[in-house]
Amino acid sequence: MEYYFGNPNPNPDPNPYFHPSTLLNTASPSTEFMLSDYLMLEDGVEHHQESWSQSTETESSEKASSSDATHGFADATSTIVNIKCKNNEIKRKKEEVSQRVTFKTRSQLENMDDGYKWRKYGKKTVKNSPNPRNYYKCSGEGCCVKKRVERDRDDSSYVLTTYEGVHNHESPSTSYYSQISLVHSGDWANSSFSMQ
DNA sequence: CGGATTTGACCCGCGC
DNA sequence: GCGCGGGTCAAATCCG
């Protein structure tokens, strides 16, 4: 299993213990740039700090990205949330999401173990894609982090995982990640992780 | 038997 | 206003 990402920093923190989902385990604003540093777009072009802040500034950028099927990684920072009213009527409201990160992962497994416990709550077929999209919620108490998992429509050997929200708890199996080692090829933009 | 998964129905936003 | 597509709900079903 390999994690591909771009990293524009020529002198990255050589911390070998890392997993994409752990990036979301903090609400610190300073980590936003770090998050974006690890994003990799479908076309292979790295979109780091600039593209991240761009997508958070205006809603028009969200519309542009969501309507452009070839650039799904320039992801939106707003989402629809359900609000239950007194009469049990459920209203939906668009809310800003503080953290949303999409990872492109080469893996045969769609539902890889990222240390958190997820409960599947939906599955949808996606237009123009032969592969279904699965929806998961974190099972942690009071934790409303969600993730979407789908196979790349162009290359089904890749899995697209979108994490949304910030965990309000530690990973149930933090120690598990001590086994993840970083495989550094010398080119950070094309480095990969492997699970051991 | 309880928790997880499946899956059809439903809701809402958006474009036409 | 209508249809489409994405996201969520919840009852039914599965499984350990």
UniProtKB/TrEMBL annotation:
Which cellular components does GO assign to this protein?
nucleus
Supply the InterPro entries for this chain: WRKY_dom, WRKY_dom_sf, WRKY_plant
Listed A to Z, the keywords are: DNA-binding, Nucleus, Transcription, Transcription regulation
Where, per UniProt, does this protein localize?
Answer: Nucleus
Q: Which domain of life is it from?
A: Eukaryota
Specify residue ranges for compositional bias: Low complexity. 51-67
- Region: Disordered; residue ranges are 46-72
Primary residence: nucleus
Q: Residue ranges of the WRKY domain? A: 107-172
Q: Which GO terms describe its molecular function?
A: DNA binding
Q: Which Gene3D superfamilies does the record match to this protein? A: WRKY domain
What name has this protein been given in UniProt?
WRKY domain-containing protein
